[in-house]
Amino acid sequence: MKPIYLLVILLTFVLNSAFAANIGFEQFSLDDDASRPLNVSIWYPTFQTSPKTVIAENPAFVGTEVIKAATLDARKAPVVLLSHGYRGSWRNLNWLATKLAKRGYVVAATDHPGTTTFDQAPSQAAQWWQRPRDVSRLLSFLLADSKWSNALDANNISAIGHSLGGWTVMQLAGVEMDRNELKKQCQLIFNPRTCGLAKELGLDKTQPKEPETNSLKDTRIKRVVSLDLGLARGFSVQSMTETLTPTLILAAGIDIGDLPQAMESGYLAEHLPLSTRHYKVYEEATHFSFMQRCKTGAIDLLEQEHKGDGIICKDGFGTRREALHADMLEDILWFLE
Asked: Which residues, 6+ apart, have CB-to-CB distance to 11 below 8 Å?
């Protein structure tokens, strides 16, 4: 039986390792909750070779090449769930999703109603607990739907989030929002980018339909990666010290003006157990360096559309975002694998 067992292991490795020829891609609406439908995007390994198309590309940003509705070529594939930042979308981490799928991961993202580029409804944004639940809902769908569940390793699930997405995945890891702590911290040191969002995100007072408990931990998620998160000072200190989910904290060393990493990623790293967390600062990265690559002339184009938005395409002086992404990918793969 041993040779057969080894053959199964080898075949699983071939199907799921860095060697998928191309990336499959699908999008659909998850309507299990009629009051909060979710726009879902999924990247996955495929050996299908055509027809190829480019997604998430526009005059300012570089997209990636995929095959829409391709065959799903995976067995016991590890799963990565993505959560975008404040008023962002699936496009922001498309670069990372594509690279992970190339390595054999099935990567799934949802746009969060109320805090996404195309849906900024105040009533949805104020339901702070829904963001982690969105990710858990997506995971439940993947593990229940035969098309996906048959290809996934239910024991190898990770979540990665950028900015407000980092705040989101930390709650999935077991860290809890603490309204009183946020108020106290913002009285001590007011940060306009984070403290200024408290009302919009429903963190200033109890909200209608707010759950009785602040615990949104999803035990199916085995590890999380936070990419330059915000609102860390609104977490319960006790819940941080008691969170044992392995965590990789990646931070931007260049402050864009009102999001110093020492008060966000550094604050989180200070309180999580040393035995289960890893923490790294990219000295030449800004908050937006974790997002998709920008095209030549993108800064001027974004400034013309909305003054101040050019900062999205600015990294450290003399630094190429492509090089930063290569370092980030290496660190993330090391942690996941």
From this structure: 75
Q: CB under 8 Å to 155, separation ≥6 — which residues?
A: 222
CB under 8 Å to 336, separation ≥6 — which residues?
Answer: 78, 80, 105, 158, 223, 225
One-letter identity of residue 47: F
Mean pLDDT by 10 residues, the chain (337 residues): 44 50 96 97 97 98 98 96 98 98 98 97 98 98 96 98 98 98 96 93 96 97 98 98 98 89 97 98 97 98 96 96 98 97
217 C-beta neighbours (distance < 10 Å), count: 18
The reply to whether the predicted model has a pTM over 0.85 is yes
Assign residue 202 a region (left: φ > 0; alpha: ψ between -120 and 50; beta: otherwise).
left
| Strands ordered across the beta sheet of 223-227 | 53-55, 64-68, 22-30, 38-46, 106-111, 77-83, 152-162, 223-227, 247-252, 277-282
In whole angstroms, give the CA distance from residue 215 to residue 174. Answer: 7
Instruction: Calculate the CA 88 to chain-centre distance.
Output: 11
Q: Measured in whole angstroms, how far is the alpha carbon of residue 98 from the centre of its chain?
A: 13
Cα 86 to Cα 64: distance, rounded to the nearest angstrom: 22
